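Re: that chain you flagged

S.,

Sorry for the slow reply, it's been a week of failed gels. I finally had a moment to sit down with the sequence you sent. For the record, here it is as I used it:
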Amino acid sequence: MRYRELGRSGLSVSEIGYGAWGIGESAWVGATEDESVRALHRAIDLGVNLIDTARGYGESERIVGRVVRERSGDEVRVATKVPPKNRAWPAPEGLDPVETFPGEHIRASLETSLRASGLDHFDVLQFHVWSDDWLGRGDWLETVAELKREGKIRLFGVSVNDHQPDSALALVRSGAVDSVQVIYNVFDQAPADELLPACAEHGVGVIVRVALDEGGLTGAITAGSTFPEGDFRARYFRGDRPAQVEQRAAAITADLGIAPDELAEHALRFVLSSPAVSTVIPGMRSVRNVERNTALSDGRPLTPDQLTVLARHRWQRNFYS
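Prediction finished late last night. Pasting the structure tokens below so you have them in one place:
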């Protein structure tokens, strides 16, 4: 496993982190706690030292905390998230931060997360949505500073609204944030336009989520793909979306001259090709996926020709809506 600095924070994080949404047994159907625990342990064995979870991920914080406490001899960083008080994802425009992240809500959510996980602090506390309208307003920044002084969190970050990378540009340039978590993948390359350069310039760490487009960049989604009732992906890949994804994925593999089962590897290497990226956090619910994904932290970047090919496959759309 190779490691990168999380911006100016001084924290060294594994290039491949662990996205723990899918193990929470809420929005993704099929996870079992036993397999999730095995996958987490295997990830740590293979050098993963950053696990990303959230208050809104069902049982995820509890499961992650259990494993991290069992691995007390290993230095594992845990990032979690505070949901907005108004429970609105993404953050609509025009809201006052008193409606979304008032200080007492931030503190209460963090205390709940600490109890759920059994941990005494989190390495990164992130707001689960963000709007640059909130800069200079409310008491969220003072509360974050207090929590840092109390040792309950080390760093402060935000999870940028889906497919809206420019919505955190002012925050990045303000110096008030340590890290941002953003969707960045072969389809959504927009963060590379302004957000990633701004993060590099201002020393802000970048945690990349949805690098595989919720499965769309694995080669496994085809026109006939279906998902169980209650599974998040049944909505994400509804209607003719699987057919659209299959066509787009096939075009990528044809242009690169690779087999469909090599698409996920190239998609993750694409993300890691950006020096502004600190870590990528694919969701991993099985030991097999952990082993496949962590093996990509081997220092073998894509070639300039491959990156040129992938740059032509931008696909601006929002399947979350």
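What I noticed first: The chain is about 35% helix and 15% strand.

Talk soon,
D.
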